[in-house]
Protein 1
Amino acid sequence: MSAPSLRAEVRAQMNQRIKDVARRRLAAEGANLSLRAVARDMDIVASALYRYFPSRDALLTALIIDAYESLGAAAEEAEAAVPRADLRGRWLAVCRAARAWALAHPAEYGLLYGNPVPGYAAPQETVRPAAKVVFLLVAVAIDAADRLAPVTPAVPGPVRSDLRRLIDRYGGGLSADHFDRVFVGWTHLFGLISFEVFGRLDGMVDARAEQFEHHMSLMADLVGLPR
Amino acid sequence: MSAPSLRAEVRAQMNQRIKDVARRRLAAEGANLSLRAVARDMDIVASALYRYFPSRDALLTALIIDAYESLGAAAEEAEAAVPRADLRGRWLAVCRAARAWALAHPAEYGLLYGNPVPGYAAPQETVRPAAKVVFLLVAVAIDAADRLAPVTPAVPGPVRSDLRRLIDRYGGGLSADHFDRVFVGWTHLFGLISFEVFGRLDGMVDARAEQFEHHMSLMADLVGLPR
DNA sequence: AGCGGGTCAAGAACACCGTTCTCGCTTCAT
DNA sequence: ATGAAGCGAGAACGGTGTTCTTGACCCGCT
């Protein structure tokens, strides 16, 4: 590896510091991040930030990528801590880790799964880290492939061909029917997390952890994971 | 009824015009609504809007309430057009109408089910119109109550007591177990719609209508609605 | 008929915001 | 040592939400 010049190193540190301060701002305030506020927190003038990020959107993109990777890492760690043979345990571990991360970082979660920022299209480099969680869920199903209960009804034709493409990309060795149910579970996972983080459950459900557990267990049933 | 003074009437019309223009702006641009832009579209100066709405948040709140009512009305109409005995058809009609409304009004949908606007707490008067869709789903289940297949596993205890409270408020005559499954379906409905509207399905699923139909049918199965 | 109170739109002003540009200063490579 | 490149400060531009003042208008009353 080429030795990084001192210049490049302090630049990378500054880059990191900006993101850290921005994350704190994001957690304190709502979703709208102010460059000038970030600069103030660093005793820096706003225009100086443009040495490191070409625009506010670029900084947001960097935060989004970091957040996807943070979420993915949290899920991966949690899943890795469960014995390989405990398939349902691994499924639930991924789900719980995603929820825990979202509740711990609600503003960043909003960046990832909330309203897309207006005028901002998610760049290509966000798609791979974004797929980490669903990839983990698929991996659990693959490991369980020969113990999965058959599922009914079968996936309708047009959906099946979409799924085939995804199976080639992510999860070889899984039937379209079972992949479909993983997809259902993935949708439900983030649907329920979004409801909770965005306050849609306020005044309706108090026992949220238990409800989450219950829902994700139902999804595991739907996939056909053995109890 | 008291005759509305002419003054009050033109004022109400102006109120309505502002909301219409704001809705158009919202559809054209992203989620961030600019009062000055609305004013420009009306050949009006921005400060004049403050005669009608005390703040930007107040205008947003009015739009949100209108949107909830529009969505609720769309779902209600669609459901009412299905024969009462076709329980699954009524369930699916509500789901389809919600999706169609969301796709037709993505920015307004984002207001309702996306990131909560920073510094903005949903006022009390939004909760009743917001509950319309789930209320319709519950109503279908109530009408189907004596034909619903039993569901397993049973709802865990702490969740059950939350559900009991909701049953008293919304859906008397439904078992906690079945109410729970309606809740699951409701979560999934808006989870999947959010995925689609917010672009989380881009590049993954093309046959979205078919996939939606499939998912919502699975949820109907989960509730125990007869085929 | 005339007057007074209430309502309205306009406009200036303030404090923010993202972004661009210029200007000195430091630091590095030659 | 010198030239080039990177850096932060600062001013500036056009945008935003919001407040306040000012003058015009309409309506109902005496």
Protein 2
Amino acid sequence: MSEQITEKQRNALEFIQKEINERGRPPTLREIGSRIGVSSTNGVRYVLDALERKGYLERSPMLSRGIELTSRSMPRTEQAKMRLVPVLGRIAAGMPLLAEQNIERHVTVDRSIAKSDDTFALSVRGDSMIDAGIHEGDVIFARPQNSADSGDIVVALLGDEATVKYFKPQGDRVLLEPANRYFSPIIIEKGTPGFRILGKVVGLMRKI
Amino acid sequence: MSEQITEKQRNALEFIQKEINERGRPPTLREIGSRIGVSSTNGVRYVLDALERKGYLERSPMLSRGIELTSRSMPRTEQAKMRLVPVLGRIAAGMPLLAEQNIERHVTVDRSIAKSDDTFALSVRGDSMIDAGIHEGDVIFARPQNSADSGDIVVALLGDEATVKYFKPQGDRVLLEPANRYFSPIIIEKGTPGFRILGKVVGLMRKI
DNA sequence: AAATATACGGAACATCCGTTCATGTGTCAA
DNA sequence: TTGACACATGAACGGATGTTCCGTATATTT
């Protein structure tokens, strides 16, 4: 499968990738030929046969421009590696978290941070988590979940205000602990109405 | 320009978008026709004429699958709010900064952070900037420039080691100041060989 | 040396595919 | 009604494009 490819084959493959990316359609045999310096369509066919045999592309017989790239030679790495994440603003109580009206804007972020497709984001207000390296204005990314492990940094909803804190359950209470010695922990009795864990913080992004 | 399009035209446009996205090539007139329920190629041609007139696509005459989408009809998620940024590893002295061999991997990031297209990234090693909220393992983004203003956070090259520090020029010396009271500033005499400012830090990304 | 495989060139062929033309349908205004 | 126009069918035409067949040149193998 993972065989070596020749210079000519690599040229052809790169040309095909470029054409699909820039023009939205694969080239014809003759177009490929004139690019890689092969004058007969049969020569090009030969090159494509080799690339297909080695698993870099697939062809549909008797179809004009019937070349498809396989995942290994996909130039769409750009698309695949990113995710469009909604940034929440004020959160209207009672609405689903990702309701249109809660969404302020969208940011793109690498999938290594936004692993699940329901990841959401939040602009940080205030300095309460500064000792955890979370500053005012940072955009934090969170994975939705309604509980968390002790010590996790979570996004919690208090009324219609979302807040970022360390999560510390203590018996029948929950401590939301800031990372700033000038701030006091928030103590929540279990079952307090309007209190909810929205998710666990999994990443952050900062403009400096 | 911004005219209304009919149901049939919208169907055709969406089908074309889908085909280009999923198969990497535009459909033929007959393929479009069978999808939108128009049996003659001339009927399809009529629909495409309308879409071209209204600015949703462009066609190359006498070319199989010669349809190109204009920017306005690109699906939104691809509408590149993002940028693919190279993450540098060890930096080989004497090589251009973005030389292939310096690049460890790529990450996608929102354009609001990577504004210029020569933005580069770096994995942070060590805790020397922790009081600036820059932690070990963070990926920082920098815009290339060979000088900076006092107080800027910069990426500097010392030999083949890149380091992130506050930039504080002092007469004929340069102070590279850490944001950690347990670390000492680095003092560089002007003209020291192997010393170079690589860029100014403009953003960061963290996986938690 | 003979045989075989690789890597093309060149031309004929068959199919694909956009274009054109002749010919309806409806709808709407004059 | 009449005529103009938007929208479609169907068929025929011709250029675009993949396929096939035959040949050649070089290298590798037997």
